[in-house]
Amino acid sequence: MRLGALEAGGTKMICAVGDETGKIFEKITVPTKSPEETMPKLTAYFKEAEIEALGIGCFGPIDPDRRSDTYGYITSTPKPAWRNFNIVGAFQEELFCPVGFDTDVNSSVLGEVTFGRAKGKNCVVYVTIGTGVGAGIYIEGKLLHGMLHPEAGHIMIQKRADDAYRGKCPYHKTCLEGLAAGPAIEERWGQEAIALRERKEVWDLEGYYIAQALGIYILTLSPELIILGGGVMHQEQLFPIVRDYVKEILGGYIRTKELDHLETYIVPPSLEECQGIMGCLELARRAVDKENEKY
Ligand code: ADP
Ligand code: ZN
């Protein structure tokens, strides 16, 4: 099958053509400007590629509920030009093919579950820590949506007493994203995150905040695997710090084989930064299945 994949991000749109095995034939990147400027470039690319279906993993919040009037819309996003934009409708009008639609983080977890290290697992959390913080949740064999979709980057966590930073989230100030996303690190310490590599205190605090969130996800969702991606997690020294704090925070209350081996439980992505786009290929494949179910 010739499938299209779109990882729609706040700064760039990654477009790819591939197949249902996760193979990527070609890929381009288009900067995210306004829909008027960006959409024609994307539709032209996918038209030319003669795809059978398209999968979109999108920045949000979005409406992924097929029964809803605003299905396929980017809804209350902080990016004004894209607010209430019917992205699925725009592609359907031009491409006349099935379109799968989910959050960017749900497509990343789907990529890992379908093609990567989470294959065969039933319950997986994928957290991205980059410009924002988000989590894709695969639970009991399905991507979790519920009333909307999880926004687990915005949970409130406890600020550490030695952290005077006021927090960056425009909605909640000191939620996880407000304390631990890349821009928060940079504002707190006054330097680009990448330049802070040698500053132990930076990554200790960061690891502590990430671990608090993971503690909450572990206790509420009981995942079998946690994958941490996004630009900030390129600081690999964070992994052991996060694992140590998770152990401390859980306090030995629950014992599982997974928690006995945190080095294989809290891990980086396994698909060389293609987990998102490969997840979109699987969204496209599933959209074809759904279309066929109708007949
Ligand atoms: P996005 O979230 O926009 O898709 P990224 O996941 O790359 O993109 O996140 C970008 C953020 O991650 C930046 O704000 C930057 O602070 C941080 N970041 C990117 N690369 C690194 C790195 N190597 N080390 C630490 N922080 C990084
Ligand atoms: Zn928030």
Number of strands: 12
The number of helical elements comes to: 9
Structural class: alpha/beta
Mean pLDDT: 97
Instruction: Provide the spatial order of strands within the biggest beta sheet.
Output: 3-2-1-4-7
Bound ligands, named by name, code or SMILES: adenosine-5'-diphosphate, zinc ion
Rounded to the nearest angstrom, the distance between the terminal CA atoms is 19 Å
Pick out the low-confidence regions: none
User: What kind of sheet is the major sheet?
Assistant: 5 strands, mixed
Strand content: 15-25%
* Overall geometry: globular
Q: What's the gyration radius in Å? A: 19 Å
Helix content: 25-40%
| Element-level helix/strand string | EEEHEEEHEHEEEHHHEHHEH
Structural account:
It contains 9 helices and 12 strands. Strands 3-2-1-4-7 form a 5-stranded mixed beta sheet. A 5-stranded mixed beta sheet has the order 10-9-8-11-12, sandwiched between helices. The model has no long low-confidence stretch (mean pLDDT 97). With 295 residues, it is α/β, with parallel strands linked by helices. The protein binds adenosine-5'-diphosphate (ADP) and zinc ion (ZN). Residues 9, 11, 130-131, 182-183, 186, 193-194, 230-232, 234-235 line the site of adenosine-5'-diphosphate. Zinc ion binds at residues 154, 169, 171-172, 175, 177-178.
